[in-house]
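PROTOCOL LOG
Step 1. Enter all chains and additional molecules of the complex.
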Amino acid sequence: MNPENYLYLSSILFVIGAVGVLVRRNAIVVFMCIELMLNASNLAFVSFARLNGNIDGQVVAFFVMVVAAAEVVIGLAIIVTIFRTRRSASVDDPNLLKL
Amino acid sequence: MIELLAATPQTSTGEAVAFWCLAPIAVGAAVMILLSRKAVHSALWMATTMIVLAVLFIMQGGIFLGVVQVVVYTGAVMMLFLFVLMLVGVDASDSFVETLRAQRVAGILLGAGFGVLLMAAVSRATFPEAVGVGAANDAAGGHVEAIAEAIFTRYVFTFEVVSIVLITAAVGAMALTHKERLTPRRPQPEQSVDRIRSAHPTPHPSPGVYAQHNAVDTPALLPDGTASEASVPDELRRQGTVRYTELEAANRRADEDGERE
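Step 2. Run joint prediction.
Step 3. Record the structure below.
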């Protein structure tokens, strides 16, 4: 098997995540799709580390994971705050800024 | 086995078999995230994808990263997702009403185009012969040692910045979810005094426990066979979901009819 297959898998997962962000309306599911995209990019990083024979790709993937964790914490806090005031977790509902 | 996989430069048959077994699971679970109507199901499919990705990391020599993936993603992040889902309401399923016309079709088309673009880029690129991270690990004296060396020497500035990001995120989450108290706080001594002054100083009777139910919506029976109203929560009585015995329910209906007449 060619190790490039990991990159194809990574791009497929990234595209699925991107479509999810565009298509789904529930803010939490949108967040999960963003996580999926980050995970797919991590897979690409690890594959590149293996292809090039150095550890740097894995270190970058590790930093991506930490940033993703921080992003999840803030994102879910925002979702909870919006849910408290609007009683909805749909990304279509917060349209107070719309004329 | 893992050491061997990390050290081999080209993919072995075992790795190929594992890849072709795991990749369809990852893609299928990822598609199910999109197709599940309920957010909880999406979360479970997400956990599946993440575990499969952890195995793929380990297969490629990222043993530390695979373990971190399981601990951080499936352990912490997914539990946080499920926790917020429970807060927001598990039943909050998606409304499938499109606010923008043909947005779903446009999104899928855009995604397909993007996918073709990515695949074309990957297929046209020339990659070096896969060497594996074995040599890099050996140079530092071990896999974890190699990662530690990279993080704490070459990437130490990034590491510090990332730690600041993490602390800021934690403080931000606390600031965002903090709720101002609207009513004054009633301390415990005051509450106990109020309780003794009230008509019901003792605890309320516990709800009824029968062979088929031991739920809080089943009222306890008084010695004369009638249901004790104090044994079920007020909220359930307001909702009208108290589960009375058949005799009690018949009596209640009779009383209501009598009142109406």
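Step 4. Note key features.
Chain B touches chain A through 89 residues (CB under 8 Å).
The longest helix of chain B spans residues 63-88.
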